[in-house]
């Protein structure tokens, strides 16, 4: 049997501006989008909280 999660989405009111390609660097610019989920051997993949 498959179990489905109730994934909630929250939209940003305004998007960030896209940096110039020559100004990109790891850990400097971040996306407007993020998906967070936890994994434990007891519960498998599950929502945070």
What can you see in these coordinates?
Helices cover 0% and strands 12% of the residues. It is mainly β and 49 residues long. The protein has a two-stranded antiparallel sheet.
Comma- or semicolon-separated keywords:
single chain, 49 residues, mainly beta, two-stranded antiparallel ribbon, 2 strands, 0% helix, 12% strand, elongated
Characterize this entry briefly:
The chain is mostly beta strands. It is 0% helix and 12% strand.
Ordered list of secondary-structure elements with their pairings:
Layout: E1 38-40, E2 44-46
Q: Enumerate how many helices there are, as a single number.
A: 0
Q: Biggest sheet, in brief?
A: 2 strands, antiparallel
Helix content range = under 10%
**SS class:** mainly beta
Q: Which strand-content bin applies to the residues?
A: 5-15%
User: Tell me, what's the shape?
Assistant: elongated
Mean pLDDT: 81
**What is the H/E order?**
EE
What is the spatial order of strands in the main beta sheet?
Answer: 1-2
Task: Please tally the β strands and state the result.
Answer: 2
Gyration radius (Cα, Å) is: 16 Å
Distance between the termini: 24 Å
Low-confidence stretches: none
